[in-house]
Design a protein that fits this description.
The protein is an alpha/beta fold. The protein contains 9 helices and 16 strands.
């Protein structure tokens, strides 16, 4: 994509920033390359480049003399440098008049997904009397916001995932009923075929985890590593996919079942706690958007996690509450996280994400995962909410 200079400048003015300083060295900052529209340009990039989009006025760049044409596709003036003294002078000139700029930086590395600029470069910019702030919310605006058409691709993918989930549970129910042997891998491979039937693509096969394997949040059955699914066991399905069309975004859900007629109290209580945490997080987001109040990713995590902690599951909830959704299943927007990271980015209109609290032990695990979308005046869950573990009889 080409750099949307006018839109970036409007965003900078709204954020009270003097500019966005994009910087990269040998691909260490892929965000800068994507925002600038340089990804896949085919040009050799072995030296440092800088490109400042000011809140007002013409953009300007600083590029090495032997790669002086690397920024030619971008609007504005570009100045070459060669030795490090010229680099120092050129960077000073580039930043002249700027007091506060955004870069791919996160204080204390609280958001490592955004923290792409090395400490030395930050020091150099600060050395010119310029304050550096995180570009995290700017990145969201230009990499994580869905158009109406993109939102529709998410909804279609979500509908397909729920159909696949239903077919998987029915397959397990049928095989149990007739005593046919089946494994996690058997069910996973059947689901892979249904992805093809539904016209979905995905990054990895779905997760099918029975009993103790459901207690591992990242367990994935393989041809060589899997177990049988027997009667009286918990089963976790985690599946994600998107349409193959350009710009389509992912849906990502998790659903729970029990291979017996009555769900044991221990499993039911754990799932109910996760459900209540999920619902508290959903209510927080919906209320904030309805009231026109800012809400940040870490607040959503705290709200959800507080419910599970109050019910005695603090030590068993060992991951963040949710992640951004985009063209990759883990998108470039805000994550619902005050556990693994401290994500202080705002939830902004046009973005989608998961809410997925889970409880994990050595003997079993449960999780409920749903997707949310933030609109201009409302926030909505984009699929059914599981209320209790499905008993497969």
């Amino acid at each position: 994509m080409s750099l949307p200079v006018a839109a970036v400048q409007r965003a900078l003015q709204e954020e009270g920033l003097d500019g966005w300083l994009l910087y990269d060295f040998r691909g260490t900052n892929p965000i800068a390359s994507r925002i600038a529209g340089l990804t896949g340009s085919g040009k050799m990039a072995t030296r440092r480049w800088y490109y400042l989009v000011p809140a007002q006025g013409e953009p300007r760049g600083l590029v090495h003399a032997i790669e002086r044409h690397n920024l030619d596709a971008l609007p504005g003036s570009k100045h070459p440098y060669a030795g490090r003294q010229q680099l120092d002078t050129g960077l000073r000139d580039l930043l002249r008049g700027a007091r506060r700029v955004a870069m791919e930086y996160s204080p204390r590395n609280n958001i490592p997904y955004v923290s792409r600029v090395d400490a030395g470069t930050i020091e150099a910019v600060r050395g010119f009397g310029v304050e550096v702030v995180s570009s995290g919310d700017l990145v969201q605006r230009f990499e994580a916001v869905w158009t109406d058409d993109v939102y529709r691709t998410h909804v279609r993918a979500s509908e397909s995932l729920y159909r696949i989930k239903d077919r998987a549970f029915e397959l397990i129910r049928e095989r149990l009923k007739f005593g046919r042997p089946h494994t996690e891998y058997d069910v996973q491979q059947a689901m892979v075929g249904w992805f093809v039937e539904e016209g979905l693509v995905t990054s990895d096969p779905p997760h099918v985890a029975a009993q103790e394997n459901a207690g591992d949040p990242h367990y994935s059955a393989t041809r060589d590593t899997h177990r049988a699914i027997g009667p009286g066991e918990i089963v976790l399905l985690d599946l994600w996919g998107k349409l193959p069309s350009p710009g389509a975004v992912f849906a990502d859900i998790t659903w729970m079942a029990f291979t017996g007629p009555v769900v044991p109290d221990e499993y039911g209580r754990a799932f109910a706690a996760a459900r209540r945490g999920r619902d508290a997080a959903v209510e927080l987001v919906q209320r904030a958007v309805r009231d026109g109040r800012e809400v940040r990713g870490f607040e959503v995590d705290r709200t959800c996690r507080g419910v599970l902690e109050a019910e005695g599951y603090a030590a068993q909830f060992i991951h963040r509450t949710g992640h951004s959704l985009g063209e990759e299943v883990h998108g470039n927007g805000v994550n619902m996280d005050d556990y693994e990271t401290h994500d202080d980015r705002r939830l902004i209109a046009g973005t989608g994400f998961t809410i997925e609290p889970g409880i994990y032990t050595d003997r079993f695990g449960v999780r409920t995962e749903i997707n949310m979308f933030v609109g201009e005046r409302d926030a909505r869950v984009t699929g059914p909410l599981q209320q209790e573990i499905v008993a497969l009889g």
